[in-house]
Design brief:
The complex is a heterotrimer of chains A (246), B (98) and C (107).
Chain A: H1 2-10, H2 16-37, H3 47-53, H4 62-70, H5 72-92, H6 106-129, H7 137-153, H8 164-189, H9 200-224
Helix pairs in contact in A: 4-5, 5-8, 5-9, 6-7, 6-9, 7-9, 8-9
Chain B: H1 2-25, H2 29-49, H3 53-64, H4 67-82, H5 91-97
Chain C: H1 2-23, H2 27-48, H3 59-89, H4 94-106
Helix pairs in contact in C: 1-2, 2-3
Classes of the chains: A mainly alpha (246), B mainly alpha (98), C mainly alpha (107).
């Protein structure tokens, strides 16, 4: 009898609004499935054009060629969106830091100390490999940022010791190099973001390296969650400032 | 051979849908975030199946490996104020308090 | 067909995420719903352009999805920081607290 009352207490009633949303979702699902079944086959695609011009793009991987050369404008704007995310997060509050990192076990410390050089090697190799095989700036930058997050949570990089000026330069390195390449395209080739075929390989590698550094730092700053404590034009941080943050 | 691949496809798609459903209907937010991380890893396998290895690498590193810790850090910051239990509390306790 | 199976999976993931965004009360679960929606759309994009031989991939949807994954992590990070600060600055209203706990129990 005790279990009966417990089961009855457990049954919650769903509000009528939820039934309305469920009905709408089911109708939307049916409509979308019907649309998917009506897609004309064979699909129109740009793959033959990409394959024709792959030799002139400077890389051998078609996804990297589309991402950085043929649709480089989209990637440039996307790197700017990253910068905008970093600016927003820095504008809202300070990065929280605990008074001391609790219970970092010696296994964690030793493992992170061993893994950190490998993270650099793997990240750099993924950026290099993007020209011919799978890889590229985003993948290498993400691996680098994972290494930085490991360092942050294992007390190798204290949040209170991080200086803000190198971080600012690091965030803007990717977008600046991208815009610089775009303007160089105007000076040397005549149109925005145009790469001459014999120079395209080297230019794209430089671009990927800069973007990988920038992406790594920005993603780690997303994890840290706020601006550093000695930001440039503020008063020095006083501990009770953000209502006991930390 | 194609029978095996078809079974693998059905299993992968079914597990993705089951993980998404459990993610949204589990009572504990911490459990939901762990489901989200495993959802990201299985999505990475789905990208490999779709012949998209670049997207698989990016999803494994960014989608599962960075978004998961972002959520966990946010959960910790949100609950520091309220000191809420992160384990599933039995229903009669919840309804007594509520 | 593999195309159809994964496209429909992507669609249903989108609908799950949309439902969670509307119905669930906890802000973290709403943001999780947004991420599931994004993953569903990416799966739909790439699955629609899937071809059986591995040499003739279509690179344009894959480049779009790569850009989309990066933009989704960016908006997730900003949304999480905003949710943290909203949760910290909303004063503790006992009626609001009670309703959100019941919604937690219901969702």
């Amino acid at each position: 009898m005790k279990t009966d009352s417990r089961m009855q207490v457990q049954k919650t009633k769903m509000a009528p609004l939820i039934w309305v949303v469920l009905l709408l979702s089911t109708c939307l699902t049916g409509l979308l499935i019907w649309t998917v079944l009506k897609i004309p086959r064979p699909l129109p695609s740009l793959a033959p054009e990409v394959a024709n011009r792959l030799a002139a793009s400077g890389v051998d991987n078609s996804v990297t060629a589309v991402l950085l050369n043929f649709r480089g404008y989209d990637t440039m704007l996307e790197v700017m969106v990253f910068l905008l995310g970093a600016i927003t997060i820095w504008s809202i509050g300070h990065a929280p830091f605990p008074p001391k990192i609790q219970d970092t076990s010696p296994i964690q410390t030793a493992a992170v100390r061993l893994l950190a050089p490998f993270v650099c090697i793997i990240g750099g190799y993924l950026v290099w490999q993007g020209s011919s095989h799978t890889g590229g700036a985003f993948q290498g930058g993400a691996v680098l940022s994972a290494g930085l997050v490991l360092l942050l949570i294992s007390d190798f990089l204290g949040v209170q010791r991080v200086k803000s000026l190198p971080l600012r330069l690091g965030f803007t390195l990717g977008p600046l190099v991208f815009v610089g390449m775009a303007l160089w395209g105007i000076i040397a080739g005549g149109s925005f973001l145009s790469f001459a075929p014999h120079q395209a390989g080297a230019l794209l590698l430089l671009l990927e390296a800069a973007c990988a550094v920038s992406i790594g730092l920005t993603l780690a700053a997303f994890f840290a969650g706020g601006r550093p404590l000695d930001d440039l034009r503020e008063e020095p941080y006083s501990p009770g400032q953000d209502e006991g943050e930390g | 051979m194609t029978i095996i691949i078809t079974c693998f496809d059905i299993l992968l798609a079914g597990t993705l849908l089951w993980l998404a459903w459990q993610l949204l209907r589990s009572a504990d937010i911490f459990k939901a975030i762990i489901f989200f991380i495993s959802f990201g890893l299985l999505m990475s396998i789905a990208w490999v199946r779709m012949h998209a290895p670049d997207v698989a690498l990016a999803e494994a590193a960014i989608g599962a490996g960075l978004t998961g810790p972002l959520f966990l850090a946010a959960l910790r910051r949100m609950e520091r104020r309220q000191r809420k239990e992160r384990r599933i509390s039995p229903p009669e306790e919840r309804n007594e308090n509520g | 067909m593999t195309n159809l199976l994964y496209s429909l999976t992507g669609l249903i993931l989108f609908i799950f995420g949309f439902f969670a965004l509307i119905v669930c009360a906890h802000p973290l679960r709403k943001i999780l719903g947004c991420n599931i929606m994004a993953s569903g759309i990416f799966l739909f994009l790439v699955a629609t352009s899937y071809r059986a031989d591995a040499a003739a991939i279509d690179p344009v949807p894959q480049a779009m999805v790569l850009t989309g994954i990066v933009v989704s992590v960016s908006f997730t990070a900003v949304a999480l920081i905003l949710a943290i600060h909203v949760r910290k600055s909303v004063p503790k209203n006992p009626q609001l607290g009670e309703r959100s706990r019941k919604d937690e129990a219901a969702s």
